[in-house]
Design a protein that fits this description.
Blueprint: E1 33-38, H1 42-46, H2 48-59, E2 64-69, H3 74-80, E3 86-92, E4 95-101, E5 104-109, H4 114-121, E6 128-131, H5 151-158, H6 166-180, E7 185-189, H7 196-210, H8 218-225, E8 226-227, E9 231-234, H9 242-252, E10 260-262, E11 267-271, E12 287-289, H10 293-316, H11 322-325, H12 331-343, H13 355-366, H14 375-379, H15 382-399, H16 405-418, H17 435-444, H18 449-457, H19 465-468, H20 471-494
Parallel strand pairs: 1-2, 1-6, 2-5, 3-10, 6-7, 7-8, 11-12
Antiparallel strand pairs: 3-4, 9-11
Length: about 500
Amino acid sequence: MAVTVGASRLGLGMLRRLPAEARPLIRPGTVPTGVVHLGLGAFHRAHQAVFTEAAVGAAGGDWGIVAVAPRSAAVVEAIAAQDNLFSVSALSPAGSATRVVGALSGVRHAPSDPDAVVALLADPAVRVVTLTVTEKAYQLDPVTGQLSPDSALAADLAGGGPPTTVPGLLLRGLAARAAADAGPVALVSCDNLPANGRRLRGMLDQAVERAGGVPAGLVDWVAGNVTCPGTMVDRIVPASTPETIEAARRALGVTDLAAVAAEPYAQWVIEDDFPGGRPGWEFAGAVLTDDAGPWERLKLRALNGVHSATAYLGALAGRETIADALEIPHLRDVLRRLIAEDVAASFTPPDGVRVVDYGEQALARFGNPAIHHRTLQVAIDGSQKLPQRVLHTIADLRAAGRSARWGALVVASWLRFALGYADDGRPLPFQDPLAGPIRAALDAGVQSPAGAVDAVFALRDVIPVEVAEDDEVRADVIAWLTALERHGVEATLAGAR
């Protein structure tokens, strides 16, 4: 649909025209920068920016955010034209609530001006750097955690030119910070990675050790001045569409070309390790803890893993959104068994949390018909997501001598999805950084489900060795893949026992 763009564009001059309940808690330009965020996507705008604005509104502090887009310039241009303002609409079956957010003190486009981003990272006023850059940007092997640089990162590590990757930006920024004696800083991963703080630390330490052209003593400086607190973030934020922008225009009375929509629910669990201080996020409802690990495993396995399962099975069955997919007969029952029999048995949850109850809440959130989260959006980058969402669950269950039959169904649905066509024969896009090797493996084993499973299980940068060499897991995946290929999703789920 067409977006209505009139003369009234969101900006500081339009704030008085907004409904009172839609105005920002803080006015851009009144709060100095204390945070740099890498990854100016919809999730950041609907999550960390919202939490930080609420924290500053409640507790004060110089914690304005300069948000950096590592790739697309379009969102930077849209937000800059709106005086760093954008709106978030919380969508529920009962209706929507739209509010403008004023947390951003600036925006930058890294490819256009990487030196400006490096200077920001070296600024002593900046004491926190947060990241939502997706799993791919860390360039870590999802199984081993070792840095696997592509040609761009290899060039960044060699030095000599402006950085073009996220690790390269961090490396050059910290080197400049150390040279300027700008003080300590916390780097905070908000991506869905297992042990995301430790992963970020591992990436950073490996990059510093391999880098050329950095100051002597940088390894020691980073060790003594940089922390990487772990986090767990949670909010369902679909990709923005023209409908998102049009709905925001109707709610606000002005046009917002950076509008995002999200579910009402939001959670942020943060390890409290900030040597230069931090916003009062606890005043915005965040959980501050010594160990985010149990919360992270809870979310990755009982929410993200179930989300992936719904996406693959839903896409194969021809369902456009996650909410549509949950209407497939028997799918909710199968997902409940995945949660109760596999996920809940695979780890110890945070104190006071029942995994089955958390999973039931997740299913209710997935079923929100106002959130048009496309199955194909959730299904991308499976090779990067499945290890922490599903394969670690399987590995932990098998180490404890337990079956992982429902987890095997998720793996089989991913393999069936990777073949590139739905149950009715329509083509499905397979977007994955390892699409080439995975497709080649599937082509090599296409004569049978067993051949396909064996070929993909041989890819050690996707399937952990303890899973790949487990005969019971292999047999379960083959059985599910055979059923999905012969009968399709609906019949397979109907016969699941």
